[in-house]
């Protein structure tokens, strides 16, 4: 057995050296980009392996759609900033101060400060549901959770917000004329007052892909893919836009200003482009997805701002890290990922990360390799997280 352990250790050590010093470079993003880590799939790598992948990409901002215990534990002491989510179904309960406090004490407080939770999103695209009871619950839930954070002394490190679809706009072009839908006015007025009071950002899920898919003959593809194009000019401000995403952001800023606020930051909680779609989903190709996300990353690296907010670099979370094979809806829904679940890039955007592989052993070698795996785990963790 001692000889078997020694041989296994030597083999594993050789494998470790091969992984870290092979001719295959691990390129680093280092762009300040955030990533959406969706998990509606049955074939995703474990959270601990995902932690290595994101570290190799130098991504330090992650948005979840829940408060997954396994994910938050796996990212302990990794210096990754997390946005965690409460699904729409939780909003009614979160209007109860006792339930809100209990949720924070059970799902958030135990992870702090070793896992850096910086924000909680209350629901996702609530106004897209047309559930008026849910609409009415959103602001009270946000206020109640925030007040519970204050009571627990956590409000300085964890903020509260919600993410909205661009369907909340009635006018999006020209950007300076941006305005919210009239039927949402009473709800958004209170929400904006809340953001202004607690200094939290207004989040939008912005997808130029949807505009192109719906009107491929009218929306210039280069304009939505950040490619060289003639652009468009806002006739009111004379500001020129060379891409649709920035125009969408400024339209939201204008809508917020029309409701009396100029001190609320707009951030993009989701944007991306699918690499595959159904026959009626124009433009959903690996080539277009690669252009959209590749060009977007370059602009993030340059810390670009929108024409109407020249001093405020656009804050962006790309959707998504992995393709998700259980997402309902059209084929595009499950194909927004930068990576396949096995760690292979879906398309080339000039970056490559490292996803540690799984090791499967026969019963005769399990005892030997269990010792080796513990040693290797510590070595790899030191090399990656040191």
Automatic annotation (TrEMBL):
Coiled-coil stretches: none
One Pfam match: Glyco_hydro_17
InterPro entries, per the entry: GH (IPR017853), Glyco_hydro_17 (IPR000490), Glyco_hydro_17_plant (IPR044965)
Catalytic activity: Hydrolysis of (1->3)-beta-D-glucosidic linkages in (1->3)-beta-D-glucans
Top EC category: hydrolase
Family label: Belongs to the glycosyl hydrolase 17 family.
Protein name: glucan endo-1,3-beta-D-glucosidase
Organism this protein belongs to: Gossypium tomentosum
